[in-house]
Every structure is written in C-alpha cells, then in structure tokens.
Amino acid sequence: MDSGGFIEPDLAFIAELKKNGGGDLKKCYQCATCSVVCNVTPDDHPFPRKEMMLAQWGAADQLVYSPDVWLCHNCGDCTANCPRGAKPADVLAAVRNASFRQLAVPQVMGSMLSVPAWLLPILAVPVAILLLVLASSGGLALPEGTITYSKLFPIWLIDSVFVPVGIFAVTASFLSIKKFWKGMERLSPLPRDADMMAAVKDTVVEIIFHKKFAKCEANSQRRWGHMLFFFGFIALFITTNMVMAYHYVLDRQTPLHLLDPVKMLGNLGAVAAFAGVTWVVLRRIFGKGETGSATYYDWTFILALYLTILTGIGSELARLADMPGMAYTVYFMHLTLIFFLLAYMPFSKFSHMMYRAAAMVFSVAAGRNRQ
Amino acid sequence: MVTPVRKKPIAVIGGGISGITVALEAADTGADVVLVEKEPWLGGRVFMMHRYFPKLCSPLCGMEINFRRIRTNPKIRVITGAAVESVSGASGDFKIALNMAAELVNADCTSCGKCTAACPETRVDDFNMGMSETKAIYLRHPMAYPARYAIDAGVCKGTKCAKCADVCEYGAINLNAKVAAMTVEASGVVYATGWKPYDAARIGNLGFGKVKNVINNLMMERMASLSGPTAGKIVRPSDGKEVKNIAFVQCAGSRDENHLSYCSSVCCLASLKQATYLRELYPDSKATIFYIDIRTPGKYEAFYAKVAKDTSISFIKGKVAKVAEDAATGDVLVTAEDIFGGGKKSYRVDMLVLATGMEPNNAGNGFPLARDADGFIADWKLPPGIFATGVAKNPADVTTSLMDAAATAIKTFASGGGV
Question: A84 vs chain B: nearest CA distance in angstroms?
C-alpha cells in the first residue's frame, strides 16, 4: 500500500508468504543475481529482484496485482544461483499462492481452498450432491447387465449437475480475472493504442509451444511433463464436448467403440495427461530440489489432477474387464474429482492458467515482452 | 617487575607481511624468533601487489625496510623452503618438525643470473598468476629475500642437465641436494599462514577460464606491476590490446553461500585502487564497478569518495551474473541489472576483473588447529602458547593485519612460555 510515499508493510501478507513457500524471503540482500540469470524476465524492470524487496516490505497490493509474478514460470534458475538461499522462485510461487486466495471471487472460496482444514468439507460437497442426485433418480443399487455408465448417471442428469457447476466456475473465473486485470491497470495503465488482439495471439502461440518453459535451465525437464499434461487435458476437454455433441446431435451413445475417433482422442489424451502428471509427481518427490518447495496448493492441485486421471483410466479398464462393482465405484469417484476440479478451479492452483494467461496478455499489450 | 628471560625462541609460521611483522615486533621486544616459510622467499601475497590502498604507494618500500630489519637483527632466524610437518609439545616447550626442500641453491648465490640464461627448462610462473613463464632456476622478484635463486624441482632435469651448475662461478648450485627433516624448538607458536585467492573457475557463471579476457584481481595487480608479466602495461590476455574499457565484478564468489559465505573486506578497496591503475595508465580509459554494496569501512570511505570523483569511473548497483565472449572481437559481454532503474542490460568491455575474495590457506583437512565455519583459525579455541594472526584468522587488509601482528607478538611474548 503506497500512501504518500510511505510503505505500510502488510505483516499478515509477509506471514502468508512465509507460510506458503516463501520462508526464506528475508534472506535476500538485493544483489540482483536472480534478475540476471532469469531467462523469462523482460529486461525493463526485470523480476524477481524487485519482487523480493516488495515481499520483504509486505507490499501486498503491488505483488498481488503484478503481471510479472505470473510471467515467472518457476524455472528455479534464480534459486539455483541465489547467493543467500533466499529462493526467489519459491517466494514468487508463494505470492501466486496468496493471489489464489486474495483474488478469488467470492473471497470466502479462496480462503477455504487455502487451508488443509477445509479439504474434507469441500470434498464432501460433490460427494453429497452426487449421492443425492443418485438417490433421487434411481436409488443406489448397481445397474444390471453390461456396464454402461449412463445407466448409473444418465447423461441429462450428469449435465444437470455439471453444467451449473461449469457456469459457476466460469462466472467466478470471470470475476476473479476482472479483479486482477483492474488491479494491474490501476498500478500500471495500459497504453491507449495497446493492440489487444495481437497480445492474445502472441500469448496463445507462447502457451501452445511452451516457449517460456523452453528457456528454463534449472528446471528444464518440467516442460515435457507440463506439455504432455497440457495437450492431454485439451484432448480430454475436446473429447468431453464431442461426446456431448454425439449424444445430443448425432444420437450416438456411450460407451463408444475403441476405434471411434473421439474415443481414440480421449484415450490418447488420458495417456498423455497420465504420463505428464506422473512425470511431475516423480520429479517433485525424487528431484534434487529443482522443482522448488511444494506447498499445500501444489499438492492438492497435482493430486486432484492425478486422481482424476487415474480414476478415469480405472473406470474404462474396469468396464472393459467387466467388473461392475469396481467400475461403478471408480466412476463415482471420477465424477466426484471432476466436480472438485471444476467447481474449485477458480480458487485453486488450477486457476494459474487463467491468471498467467491474463498476465501474459497484459504484459504483451503493455509492451513488456521485450527481452 | 622481573624481565622475562626466554630460553626458547618464538616460532612464526608464514613469512608474509603478518609473519614478518610478528617476527620483527617480537624480536624488538626482546624475544628470539624463528621465521619459517615454505616458499624459497619471504614476502607472501603483498609482494604481488602493485600498490597499497589508500595511499597508492608501492609495498616494495615497506618491504625493503622490513627485509633490512630482518637481515640486521641477530634475534631473527629465517628458515625458507621449510614446510611444517607437525607442531607438538606445550606452551614453553614446542617442537616443530619441518620438511626442508632440497637446498639446490645455497647461500653462496650472488643472484648474478648466469644460471637462468643457461637453463633450458621453463615453468609456469605462479607468482605472476600463470600469465608468464620463468626458467626452472629463477628468482621470483628482483627484490626477493633471501636474494638467492631457487630451482623448481618439478621441472628441473637435475644432474642429467646440470647446465646451471656448469656456469655458476660460485659453486652455489648442488643438484644432488636432498630433502631433509629438521626440528625447531620454540616457547610459543604463531600461525601467520595467510590466504589464497578464491578459485574463480569455480564460479560457473562469471566466465573465468572460459572467457579469455576475464581475469581475477591478483592478475590485475601483477599486470599493473612493473615486475609483472606485462611490465606494467594493462593489456588483454587474448590479444595484448591495451585495455581502455574495464569492468569489475564485486563479490565474485564472496558473500555467497555457494562459494565463500563471508565478505573478504578488501575487494571493494582493491577494485577502487585498480580502477586508478588503469585511469592513470591510459587517460582515455574508463572503468565500471558492479557492486552489491561498496564496502569501504571507516577511514576508507574517503578513498571511495576520492575515486568516485573521477567521472570516468562509474558504479552500477547490481551484481554481474552472466558473462559471455564476443568471439569476433574478444570483448567481454557482462549482464547485470542496474538496480537504480536502469533495467537488465548487457555491457561490452575490453576486460573483466573478478574481485575474488580471500580463502584461508589452512582450509585443508589435515590442518591441526580449530577453525571457524569459514575455515579461518578460531583463535579463541587455541591451546596456550599457540596464536594466529592476520588473514589466517580473519579476512583483513594490510593495515589491520599489521596492527593485529603487533598485538599478537606481544601476546605471544607475554604468554609465559619459557620464562
């Protein structure tokens, strides 16, 4: 908070950063090695040196509404070269964690997603809703005959749950991004002649090719895990929409034949996403610290993704193996996890995709993409 | 008050400026002194310096006076070419076992230099930081003390060659001399084992050893020195071009938990001093000092202010963290963030000097004394009768080391051994 030239340190914010991965932020002595070794920072007002100072000062406003915090791709080159062990990469990750909470609309959701104590209650919500829907539609007994998941949850029933959840997620995302964008504009107004279309185009190309990840040195391996997951996820997203189109437009019902192009796309996506997240998890556990320190935000996000993929693959395998008890149970878990991911997306680490994309568009529009 | 009568001398290990000063002060106080040095000559690191800060005078003047005081003081015995094997015993009665290098050149040498002219073998000159070569029989410095040649046994072919012995008119060369053991008795022992420059090649991102025109600060001293490899010309190692645009990287491997975690306290002053070498030598030159904080404590602040008045010397707050070579020109490209609003930039310079810090010489595993976390001798943990002085126990400049050496001489004298 800047008031008349005086910095008013937000001590609670400093404490939040320290708790969420930035425990060493006070060790920084402003040598700027980090800004120099960083391959993804703009040259003009580079990061993360200035962010380290803002973090030490507890300048919450200038960090939470900073696009630079999101231009950081957590390569860890700053941490690897830091002479003081202040771990700038972790501090910026901590700022992003704090942002998930502070930028969340409604903010109470951000707060609930930020602490382990709320994990079981927020997990119980989808379980309860899905059980309720199940009980009111046809009871909790396992369907007879060939395993077909639409016997358990007819598609119209699934959609009547997930379409509202999706609308909630999209609305919350929109409001959070709006809050973030307005904050960025307040701190540093965009030029009037900013070319937004070009900025969006640049950003999309950047993301598709993972260009920034390619510049990482210390944590260069993560690029492949992220890319596999990213494209696997997109394939699964397309699959889901295609299945809806099959159902409502072409009247083609699930389960699809294994050689159906949509089914093949889905399976390919599942394998890619599984491989990607496995790679991420293994490197988080067995890496030599190049992934940075992992927080509650990281693990809830990674594990929710991982379990969603595993139960998705599990549902398909159990169905093919004709094990009804197992199949329907795993499928139920799979739906629960998808609900969890989707409904809480705007408040969890999952939302990094929208904040980072917004920050990249903003930076390009502001002319801060020069290196 | 009874004047103590010392039965055994004080032994001083290390013949650099700290050890020399302890020896002189202790001898002036009335003690007998044995000054032990593992190299063939006294003088240590300061002998490599072109000038001292802040007065910018040559160390040779003071060193000449010290050598004369040593030469004319019967209470001081100098033993060179002697590596300490062990120190045993207790306060008042120490025994110091020395491994004596073979005395291939004896005291009859007059430093006439005929041997060097005849010698066919060469060696890398460590005194000039590897920037030049000497013959296998050589004198480190025109003012070396004792003024006698030495032979690098690692390079010399010995009696198979013997060209030096053939031309020596004084019979000063004995190529059959063997290494020997020797024991010295002492009442007290002072470790003045000094320092070495931190190995800049270990700082991966600063280019030393990879980018040809990146040197360390001791190399800069030798270049500026008239007795150095370039006879006082500051030129680029790659092509011998006069350096008109130089940059200094402060804290190169210092205040860095990956290298030396401490501040060596002298490198800022050394770079300020070295910037004046270049400015004096080439009036159209300019220098840039990249720093985290300029550390010029106490009275040295005035030196900083004086140097900073020169508008051709600029200071950029921000540590250099990337160094590259422009292959076509040999120029050095250094990247830093100008913290005072200049952004991240690449700067092109003729030559880059890494202001590396001081690493204690006693950092090895076999060192017998207690050390602090940084490898310096922990003098508060030493047994009675044993003392440490100078950079062996703390990074320090020459002035501070001299004061500490005088104090250490008195402490050792007063410690009671042999009284």
Answer: 6
